[in-house]
Amino acid sequence: MPATAPLAFFLILSGAAVGSFMAAWADRLPRGDSVVSEPSRCRGCGTRISWRDKMPILSWLILGGKCRTCETAIPKRLFYAEISGASLAIAAIWGAQSPLHMVLGALFLWLLLGLVMCDLAAFRLPNALTGLLFVTGLGLAWENPFRAPLDGLIGAAAGAGAFLLIRVVYQKLRGREGLGLGDVKLMGGIGAALGVTALPVVALIAAMAAMLVAILVGWRKGERPGSTEEIPFGAYLAGAAGLWFLIG
Questions:
Q1: Digit-coded pLDDT (tens) for 146-196
Q2: Quick check: 82 and 22 in contact, CB under 8 A?
Q3: SS3 of 221, please?
Q4: How many domains are contained in the chain?
Q5: Does residue 131 share a domain with residue 19?
Q6: pLDDT tier for residue 115 given thresholds of 50, 70 and 90
Q7: Is the pTM above the cut of 0.85?
Q8: Is residue 83 part of a domain?
């Protein structure tokens, strides 16, 4: 609608910036570096990156994907993250039923994007992201006229409770951790946003995707995937939740 065009344009521009921020977070997470207090620097020469080289998408294209000072290649994943952030904003705008739904939907998808990247980079789901996901999920539940006021809390309790139970039972039976607490918190946020009925579908999609990738990776390496192989299952859960949010 014309009335929401400025908001939509703002979200698309913000999406590229959010994607860049999430990529930087995931990149620094394994090293324990702060994404807020520490300035961005080139990995090659250590030069502090100026504001003109931080413009999402444009800076990467202008510089040809290289550092202005030493021409060290900038990881393509940063560029792809910026494109993904903007694309998710467009997807949220396309399916929005109201301006508030547009904003909450974009925020929900951006948080899922950040969680996917962090889990793939460091097998970690930061509390800040899962906490914001939970709050955003409650906002989506409250904003939806077809859901009861307490539906978000019920969905969160069901998602987190089910995965906490799986975590405890698996640890008792196998003597080792199968699911991290990050996955439990993640499912709480997903349950709040999507509701109880979506949880089995999201879990099934994530499990099937994880299994398929493990088989393909094992086949490519010429080996059978081991039962103790660590899998970033949170990334699959977040991806499945985003997919279901858009098409479900």
A1: 888 799 999 999 999 999 999 999 888 887 777 889 999 999 999 999 999
A2: no
A3: helix
A4: 2
A5: no
A6: very high
A7: yes
A8: yes
Is 184 among the domain residues? yes
User: 177 and 139: one domain?
Assistant: yes
Q: How far is it, in rounded angstroms, from Cα 207 to Cα 195?
A: 19
C-alpha span between 176 and 227 (Å, rounded): 12
Number of helices (H), then strands (E), in the chain: 9, 0
Question: Closest by alpha carbon to 112, among 136, 95, 96, 142?
Answer: 136
Name residue 80's beta-bridge partners: none
Residue type, 128: A
- Residue range of the domain that includes 147: 124-248
Question: For residue 66, what are the β-bridge partners?
Answer: 73
> Measured between alpha carbons, how far is 232 from 230 in angstroms, rounded to an integer?
7
Structure tokens of 36? 């807020």
pLDDT tens-digit readout, 40-70: 776 777 678 777 777 888 888 888 888 887 8
Is there a domain that residue 1 lies in?
yes
Within a domain: 235:
yes
Structure confidence by residue, pLDDT tens digits, 25-34: 998 888 777 7
- Give 34's contacts (C-beta < 8 A, 6+ positions apart): 28
3-state SS, 128-164, equals HHHHHHHHHHHHHHHHCCCCCCCHHHHHHHHHHHHHH
Based on the domain organization, do 246 and 144 belong to the same domain?
A: yes
